């Protein structure tokens, strides 16, 4: 029986991660993004890769009141003694509907790239996109990464991420496929269904050739950062009880006073 | 009833965080650490503050096989469909014993600083440390942030963090108190009880004058990064079942074969 | 190193819990409440104890839309692939504010009983209650188990639980203390602050002389039952997205259309 | 926008669940299993249904040291302030590998029953089983509910559950299919792959014609009961640190002393 990790280990006087001395070669020498790469992949990212990873974590760090931040705030109301519980409750909502989509898009685009020749022309890309959309008609999941409940005319994060990808040499087959699928899908559905931020992030993870599970994982790291901000605000200026009251006011029964 | 967050909001065509346009002024412009600060505190950190925050997240990102990474890996074994579940299970172990200690130390040192004059001499620091240690004798919690099950002669991360703090102008009253408590505690217990990494991180959060809850929160963000690495490895080269077998082998009953 | 549990073990052909053969002596012979007792305490409860445990779990099983059920439903919206994640998110809100209060009340009443003689007269009970209320004035927590945001004139579950306790011989010092504290607290606050369901449940756990941690634990088991009902309904007739929309509608900014 | 649950609601003086007055008609009148049914399905179960539900929850309540109980114990070590966190961490391991299997088996058997006539003869059952096994060859999931790492010659809970089902009139098409699949699978794999407890529970949920999601949900309720027992024991006689030490001892590096 061998139980062993390559990520790191401690002895009485040393801590080693991926062959580097943590106090001497990592703390104060590598920043957080570089360290995540070192831990997960065993290597420090190159500069342009690091730029993209920062943008991915920044995009995943929540803003406003989403189901994830609401769940976290409601949890802190019930268990103020456990910040880790409220953060965990929030992250648990990062699944196939919201944040985990990034992983699903990354898988879809990376495996479509596998079936294409190097440097495919636009006709091949269009064909591959049409095939993906056609295949999705039979499944119950649909194509992940398109449409948004609020940003119905287009997700404003997508062009920013596309531009950054281009500037850093990461606008290749996955991005081209992602946009071609938008065309194909909108034609087939007869209404605009624009690529959303989770879809664009999935395309970038495929461009970076990172394992798809890492896409879901890093999206959760980014969101964890946003949750800290929301829970700090909740501690200082709570709104969870108002959210509860608001829901109860909708659920009133006949004349009975709540 | 007002339900409102200052952190951010979305309209059909825009996303705004802390008054900044997310696609135009944040994505690709600020890195992840700067964005966390912006979201949580409403401001971008200065350079030396950012250096320290990176070091804090890097130090909190796990290495080796700790109870937190073991719980996460065992959870992925049972529910491979939910990476977010395994990460949440891991983070739930970041409480008063392991990671949350950082918050408790930060609170202790920040409130001790409040009771001291500006620029206290060493005698005042020693007196304050002795008082804290004496007060802890009566409580059931003890002084958080000292001693380590593996690094019994001293935690190798502590001098690295102290040096980085000094270089960046963050070695003030909290750090001096933290070391003075080590002296006082070791004298009182009649054995060396060195400051550990959670204690040193708590001192730095107090130096940075950040809210103590943020100390616990950012420790969880850092750990979340480490968990992604462990769960990627678990997916590729699983060890959770071996951990289980190892435990069962210890729990064997008499002659009965398991 | 000994790693051993007294709760149960498996061999190739047998499963034994607390010395009983699971397939032969437990499945189909003991019901769920009896099995929980067997696992946790090593014994089957007597009939009147079982009646009370059933009532405790029934009372803890949620009804209506509480912060806990809302967090669970919002989590299922984001991660429909993981029912366990939505249930975990819900349970994480069962802490010091809502469900865990049961444990805190149980601890308070059980330790107050320790300081009283057997069969104390009403004057002694009143004195003990006054002392507890006076002591709470200095602490930041207050007395747990009193007041309710909706049931401001009294929690309708409390008389039902009191009556059941009386009928089963479990109306002793903890219940008498619980009601005396209500008097003392209302006098001191100059407004009625009635015992709530969590308080009454805490009194019953103290009557049953069960470990206080078990009070928090069984409250979570009961709530887990209620969460299954809510998540089944959410899967069939979802409301989480409406809850989100409702919150966003409150958080509208100026003229900007969401 | 309508936000409404049929499960229950509160007014100032009343609590109503599924049309019944909670204090007057439920607490002390219905036991926990009956209440779960009432909440989830809107009806009280008949006696034989209740017998089966009790057996299902009892079977799902853990025994011994499984990955789920280990994750919960390791989490309590790190965050002793939050029992709900340790329970949540445990439940998060109840997914597609371990406990959620029950749901998957229930879905598989219920939908196979749909495609069969009423009262099918054995040849039809065998044919349906062979078809399911053949179809599973192409998929990456395999047939859920068969084989066990410890009970390699047969899971001792299965005959107990089968007998109880027969005695209560619940041994119909799902059970017959479950056993026929065992035959078909063992023939095809050329080694015995016996039905396990999760498989048998899945068959019973299909016999009871309950929604498959309820199978996963109730398995979690049952397990929650077992987790309370393990965490009580962990609080009194902890083993989590020994588990950690045991793992570290396996991960030793060369001569370096840990």
How would you describe this structure to a colleague?
The structure is a homotetramer of 258-residue chains. Chain A is mostly helical and 258 residues long. Among the domains of chain A are: 1-48, no CATH class; 101-210, Cytochrome P450-Terp, domain 2 (Cytochrome p450-Terp, domain 2, Orthogonal Bundle). Helix content of chain A is 60%, strand content 3%. Chain A has a three-stranded antiparallel sheet with strand order 1-2-3. In chain A, helix 4 packs across helix 11, helix 4 packs across helix 12 (240-250) and helix 9 packs antiparallel against helix 10 (197-207). The longest helix of chain A is centred in the last third of the chain and has 25 residues, at 212-236. The radius of gyration of chain A is 22 Å and the shape is flat. Chain A starts with 7 loop residues before the first strand and ends in an 8-residue tail after the last helix. At the A-B interface, strand 1, strand 2, helix 1, helix 2 and helix 3 of A face strand 1, strand 2, helix 1, helix 2 and helix 3 of B.
Brief descriptors of the model:
homotetramer; 258 residues; mainly alpha; Cytochrome p450-Terp, domain 2; 3 strands; 60% helix; 3% strand
Compact summary:
With 258 residues, chain A is mainly alpha-helical.
**What is the subunit arrangement here?**
homotetramer
Rg over C-alpha atoms of chain A, rounded to the nearest angstrom: 22 Å
Morphology call of chain A: flat
Instruction: Find the biggest chain interface.
Output: A-B, 95 and 95 residues
Tell me the major beta sheet of chain A. 3 strands, antiparallel
Q: What's the β-strand tally of chain A?
A: 3
Strand content of chain A: under 5%
The helix content of chain A is: 55-70%
Structural class of chain A: mainly alpha
CATH topology of the domain at 101-210 in chain A: Cytochrome p450-Terp, domain 2
The CATH architecture term of the domain at 101-210 in chain A is Orthogonal Bundle
CATH class of the domain at 101-210 in chain A: Mainly Alpha
How many helical stretches of chain A?
12
For the record, give the distance between the C-alpha atoms at the N and C termini of chain A, rounded to a whole number: 61 Å
Provide the succession of SSEs of chain A: EEEHHHHHHHHHHHH
| pLDDT averaged residue by residue of chain A | 93
User: Biggest sheet of chain A, strands in spatial order?
Assistant: 1-2-3
Q: Which residues of chain A form runs of ≥5 with pLDDT under 50? A: none
The CATH homologous superfamily of the domain at 101-210 in chain A corresponds to Cytochrome P450-Terp, domain 2
């Amino acid at each position: 029986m061998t139980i062993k990790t390559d990520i790191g280990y401690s002895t009485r006087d040393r801590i080693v991660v991926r062959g580097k001395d943590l106090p001497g070669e990592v703390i104060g020498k590598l920043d957080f993004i570089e360290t995540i790469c070192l831990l997960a992949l065993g290597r420090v990212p190159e500069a342009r890769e690091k730029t993209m990873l920062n943008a991915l974590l920044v995009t995943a760090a929540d803003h406003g009141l989403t189901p994830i931040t609401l769940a976290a705030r409601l949890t802190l109301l019930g268990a103020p003694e456990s910040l880790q519980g409220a953060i965990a409750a929030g992250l648990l909502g990062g699944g196939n509907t919201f944040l985990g989509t990034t992983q699903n898009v990354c898988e879809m685009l990376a495996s479509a790239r596998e079936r294409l020749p190097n440097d495919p022309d636009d006709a091949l890309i269009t064909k591959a996109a049409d095939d993906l959309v056609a295949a999705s008609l039979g499944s119950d999941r649909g194509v992940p990464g398109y449409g948004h409940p609020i940003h119905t005319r287009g997700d404003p994060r997508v062009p920013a991420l596309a531009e950054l990808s281009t500037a850093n040499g990461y606008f290749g087959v996955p991005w081209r496929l992602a946009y071609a699928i938008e065309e194909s899908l909108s034609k087939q559905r007869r209404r605009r269904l624009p690529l959303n931020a989770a879809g664009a992030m999935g395309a970038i993870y495929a461009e970076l050739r990172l394992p798809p599970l890492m896409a879901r994982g890093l999206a959760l790291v980014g969101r964890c950062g946003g949750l800290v901000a929301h829970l700090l605000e909740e501690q200082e200026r709570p709104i969870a009880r108002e959210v509860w009251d608001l829901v109860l006011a909708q659920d009133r029964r006949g004349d009975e006073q709540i």
